[in-house]
Amino acid sequence: MSPRTRRPGRIAYPALLATTALGTMSSAVVNAPLWVIRTDLGLTAEQAVLAVAAFTVAMATTVPVSGWLGDRLGAKPFLLAALAVMVLAELAAAAAGGLGMLVAARAVQGAACSAIPPCVQTALVTAWPDRTARTMGTWASAIGLGQAVGPPFGGFITDALGWRWVFLVHAGLVLVLMAALAAAMPGVPRGRPPLHTAALGWLVVGCAATASAVVLAGQNGPWAGVGLLAVPAAAGWVLFVHLSRRRSRRAAADPAAPRPLLEPALLRGPGYRTAAAGAGLAMGAMAVAIVATPLFLAAELALAPAQIGLVVLTLALAMTATGPLAARVGRRHGSGVQLGRGVALVVLATPVLTTATVAARLGVDTWVVVAVVITGLVVAGAGIACAQSAAATELLLSPAGRSGTAVGLHNMVRFLAMALGYSAVSLAHALDAPGLIFPALGLAALAVLVALRTPRRPAPDPTAPDPAVPGRTDGAVAGDRVPAGGNGSADPCLDDDAALGGPARTHHPHPTDAPVPPALPRTAGASRREDRP
To answer: Which residue among 220, 273, 337, 396 sits deepest, i.e. has the most Cβ atoms within 10 Å of its Cβ?
Structure first.
């Protein structure tokens, strides 16, 4: 029997949440001083955006491997190692003398940051299994806090000490947290997750090539390079699906055959597609807002980094304040209604922000333009919060929500949408058409809203009992062996879907250590509450 997890220290819970907040901050700290960095290093606007996008692209590319490594090596040692790499990368960013070193350092930071979500989630769920829903809610709030604090953090430090100190101060905070985690973070038993090397490898290739093509397009080419990257991107996704299907068929025919990382049928459910569309729009809209707005405020209104940080802060504050109200709408009317209202708010925000850009060029007073920008950001933040939480609910209540691999792919879609938002801003500046950024976002949001309101045929539930295998109700393919632990893997200690970095599941050292919550039925307005008695 695997050793039990030791009792966590008193500071473990706040330290884990603070790690999540700092991880989110690391992606946002350069947004407010972006114009200062551009001026100091002699960059173009699209090159400056590349320093922001590199973080997200690296995180999206490495998140599948990070989830698997965290389970294989142990959440605590892998998280501490990743944070150490992040510190070194931030020191390199602080010393950057040009675009190449800055982008490389930001990419390493993103790769290291991809270890934080799976490792922190695993530790939280394992150490406090009796309050999973409450803990995950607080974890999500920590993400919002990091997003809110990041821009003003970068702005104020840049005004006081210079933009290089943003990385140095953040690195110092990470070192403090590393000491706290080393002393108090509970150890999590290592797993032996199955690894379909070929499928996982092609998945990483497809994601990396797709993200790189998106970013390169944002640099206004070279378009031949974008076309060349499309080849490995398409090959990676096609081969990943093909290999997953082939292993699924073998597992159905042979009980001893290894299970696939993902049942492809899970991705065809309408709930999963809706969740991907809503989350993608929310992340793309947030990426556009947090990059295009600082560039506009600096170029058109000549605001200081600290002032820009305070303006952008209103977006995150609106997201945080809207969370409880959005959840109430979802409980009362269903997540589909909540998602539709969130997307509608994003559509409504875009003409407000467009009006601000036009007013600035017409010479309207600065305070009036800033007030309009804040109004647009508040509306957009409320819409993003509604869309994000509704998309998460749709995902968790869909059959795919019980597959960590499918959830990992969902997160990859979110990060790729964020990279697409960065790329759109960069391309608009490269074409000298920044005024088209928010109208284009509005059209994209409107298209998603129309798609959400189009009637859908219910897809068959791939987790329904297999008529060929009497008594199967766990949604696995015929021939899979389900041990007494109930998690569908050959070893009751394992979470075999954690390989792609989805939300970690509790690792029970023994089948009787803790009950396994049953799958939730999909009902309008339902919410996931594991800690309800």
So the answer is: 396
Distance, CA of 428 to CA of 45 (rounded, Å): 10
Under 8 Å CB-to-CB from 353, ≥6 apart: which residues?
Answer: 289, 293, 372, 373, 376, 377, 380, 438
Query: Long-range pairs for 229-233 at CB < 8 Å and ≥24 separation?
Result: 232/205, 232/206, 233/206, 233/209
Nearest residue to 72 (alpha-carbon basis) of 520, 518, 428, 507: 507
Give, as one character, the DSSP assignment of residue 260: P
* Beta carbons of 58 and 110 less than 8 angstroms apart: yes
Contacts of 181 by beta carbon, 8 Å cutoff, 6+ apart = 12, 15, 16, 19, 76, 79, 80, 83
pLDDT at 343 over 80: yes
What is the pLDDT confidence band of residue 175, given thresholds at 50, 70 and 90?
Answer: very high
Residues found in the chain: 533
d(CA 192, CA 189): 10
Give the separation between CA 323 and CA 385, rounded to whole angstroms: 6
Alpha-carbon span 444 to 447, nearest angstrom = 5
Worst-scoring range by mean pLDDT, 127-131, 179-183, 363-367?
Answer: 127-131
Comparing CA positions, the residue from 448, 417, 160 lying closest to residue 280 is 417
In which band, very low, low, confident or very high, does the pLDDT at 474 lie, cut at 50, 70 and 90?
very low
User: Model pTM?
Assistant: 0.68
Q: Classify residue 241 as exposed, middle or buried by CB count within 10 Å of its CB (0-12, 13-18, 19+).
A: middle
> Assign residue 252 a region: left if phi > 0, alpha if psi is -120 to 50, beta otherwise?
alpha
Find the helix packing angle between 45-73 and 75-94, rounded to 10°.
160
Residue 287 has pLDDT above 90, yes or no: no
CA 486 to mean position of chain CA atoms: 28
Give the pLDDT confidence of 361-376 residue by residue, as tens digits. 888 898 999 999 999 9
Q: Give residue 464's pLDDT.
A: 52
- Comparing 24 with 490, the larger pLDDT belongs to 24
What average pLDDT does the segment 22-44 reach?
83
Type and span of the H or E element at 369:
helix 366-397
pLDDT of residue 246: 86
For 31-69, give the secondary structure using H, E and C: CCCHHHHHHHHCCCHHHHHHHHHHHHHHHHHHHHHHHHH
Q: Are 488 and 494 in contact (CB under 8 A)?
A: no
Distance CA 273, CA 263 (A): 15
User: Helix, strand or coil for residue 403?
Assistant: coil
Q: How far apart are CA 355 and CA 442, in angstroms?
A: 13
Which residues make Cβ contacts (< 8 Å) with residue 234, sequence separation at least 6?
Answer: 206
